[in-house]
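Q: Predict the assembly, please.
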Amino acid sequence: MLVSKAKNRTVEVDIDKVSLGSFYTTKSGWLTHQVRHFLENALIESNGYLLDPFAGDGHLLETIKADLILGRQVKQATGFDIQGANWAINDSLVAIPNPERAVIVTNPPYLANHSAKRKGVEQLVAKYFANSTQKNLYRIALENALASADYVVAIIPETFLLSTFPKHRLELAVVIQDQLFADTDAPALVACFGKKVRDDAHVFTGEQSIGTLKEILFLRQSNAPKQNIYFNDPNGRIGLRAVDGSDGKTSIAFVAAKDFGYPSDSVVVSSRLMTYLEVPGVADVDIPELISKANALLASIRQRSGDLVLAPFKGNDRTGRRRRRLDYALARKILSSCL
Ligand SMILES: C[S@@+](CC[C@H](N)C(=O)[O-])C[C@H]1O[C@@H](n2cnc3c(N)ncnc32)[C@H](O)[C@@H]1O
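A: Predicted assembly structure:
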């Protein structure tokens, strides 16, 4: 597949693997103390019925059956898949038959509509997107799972947390920092949905409690009046490194333009990772103070949200910490609050 026409670069894509999202969960790091507790209750309510509608090699079902507590609760564990001989064949992106109202535990395929085009597998998945307003296969899978089960535990991309997908049944969300899959380092989240409509959800990173989802989203809000701030201005007086580096040393930061060292002619309208920005009306002498206040506020909201106010960016850095990206909407709010 051609990924860069300008550089004439190509990469090999496994068409079946990409279109079916066949990245298996070979590790059990997703079954944290909180998720286990959620499943204990869910399995009581479902009379021990358990279902993985995207079962693959069945790792998730095996992990639950092997668990000392949960294993004893499971009366029947079944799965579906669209391929292979392990399970009954079912297209679970169309519908998930579940007459027993079994608890669904699953790791559905992830594939964004736009990446399907880029990866050349559009034809294989077009029918799902044609019948849905969702733009990623995992969201279609999640809609189907929530429609057919009272309790759903889904391993999905961490970006779900900041997304607009309805979260009124979300009870618990656990961000998994360790790599869960054998062959991809996609940042993952274990999302646990219950039967009832709820006001808020508990959020954890691994075993550590971060707070509620509302508290985290609140940290992205700002009451400061909106200022004119121009991003991607090559002559801007402030540089912005909007992503954490892979070395674990260089974090997201606002930096004085003269110290930034990033070629200003590399900045284009679509720049999202490294850029210059301009805040008109601020005197040159006040720029250093604005930068230091903005970095302090950023550090504070990163710390208070356990980093979850920021979207994940690629995988983890060399120290094992998940890399993050600061979107310009939040960068604008931070700067506005500091003016
Ligand atoms: C991400 S893998 C997960 C496998 C397993 N649950 C795990 O975590 O190891 C996704 C699985 O969904 C299956 N799949 C893809 N599209 C499907 C569809 N439309 N209906 C049912 N299964 C599908 C793939 O064949 C693959 O086995």
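Residues 20-25, 52, 54-57, 59-60, 80-83, 90-93, 106-107, 109 surround S-adenosylmethionine (CB under 6 Å). Residues 2 and 10 are 4 Å apart (CA to CA).
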